[in-house]
């Protein structure tokens, strides 16, 4: 099984089933050029902002993939022609053929820009994905005490870019609560407004006894 970073907050888990998280491809300046996606089975969408819902409609249609997101986003995507959705909500857990998925709280917004309108995108979330290894994709979030309830995580994917999400300092506090086996920073340096020092984050993470792996877009780890 591989975990591949595709820039910003987009990750691809490939194994018995192929899962893409927050599929921001079109317009993503950090998406690796010439990268070809495999056939996708599932698309996870943490919230409705364009840099996360991204290409969900197009990819779901191309791959006949199931989109998993909150109830409101699933309804929106159905109206856009997505045939296979699985709606969930915060605290909900479900079993799929890849393992289990639970939605976690995220402190953020979720409005979907649809032409000149902004559509209600429900409550933003993170994901705990258990495929034999337990991944925590925090989504876009600020620091929250709810993270104390997230445990037994093998790999945490945490935003560090600040401005819209946690910065390095707050992400380190999140690490102290979650205590994952490894952390991979995300949602930084895509644009100047979310510029962050990943080397500092790595150094401070490892001072806390938590391995930090910095992935460039297109790079992967085997798990």
What does this structure look like?
The chain is an alpha/beta fold. Helix content is 19%, strand content 29%. The protein has five helices and 16 strands. The protein has helices at residues 50-53, 56-63, 71-79, 168-178, 198-207, and strands at residues 2-5, 11-14, 19-21, 42-44, 66-70, 85-88, 93-96, 99-105, 112-114, 117-119, 125-130, 134-137, 155-159, 182-186, 211-212, 220-222. Strands 6-5-4-3-2-1-16 form a seven-stranded mixed beta sheet, covered by helices on one side. A seven-stranded mixed beta sheet has the order 7-8-11-12-13-14-15. It has a two-stranded antiparallel ribbon with strand order 9-10. Helix 4 runs parallel beside helix 5 (198-207). It starts with a strand and ends with a strand. InterPro entries: Metallo-B-lactamas (IPR001279), RibonucZ/Hydroxyglut_hydro (IPR036866), UPF0173 (IPR022877), UPF0173_UPF0282_UlaG_hydrolase (IPR050114). One of its GO terms (molecular function) is hydrolase activity. This is UPF0173 metal-dependent hydrolase JYK00_00755. Keywords: Hydrolase.
């Amino acid at each position: 099984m591989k975990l591949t970073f595709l820039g910003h907050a987009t990750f691809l888990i490939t194994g018995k089933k192929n899962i893409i998280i927050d599929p921001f491809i079109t317009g993503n300046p950090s998406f690796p050029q010439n990268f070809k996606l495999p056939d996708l089975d599932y698309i996870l969408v943490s919230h409705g902002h364009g840099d996360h819902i991204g290409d969900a409609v197009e990819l779901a249609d191309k791959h006949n993939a199931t989109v998993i997101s909150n109830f409101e986003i699933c309804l929106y995507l159905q109206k856009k022609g997505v045939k296979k959705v699985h709606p969930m909500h915060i605290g909900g857990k479900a079993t799929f053929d890849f393992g289990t998925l639970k939605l976690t709280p995220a402190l953020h917004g979720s409005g979907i820009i649809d032409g000149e309108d902004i559509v209600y995108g429900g409550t933003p979330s993170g994901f705990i994905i258990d495929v034999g290894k337990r991944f925590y994709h925090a989504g876009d979030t600020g620091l929250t005490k709810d993270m104390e309830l997230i445990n037994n995580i093998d790999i945490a994917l945490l935003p560090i870019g600040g401005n819209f999400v946690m910065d390095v300092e707050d992400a380190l506090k999140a690490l102290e609560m979650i205590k994952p086996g490894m952390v991979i920073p995300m949602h930084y340096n895509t644009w100047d407004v979310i510029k962050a020092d990943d080397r500092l984050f790595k150094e401070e993470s490892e001072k806390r006894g938590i391995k930090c792996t910095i992935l460039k877009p297109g790079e992967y780890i085997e798990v």
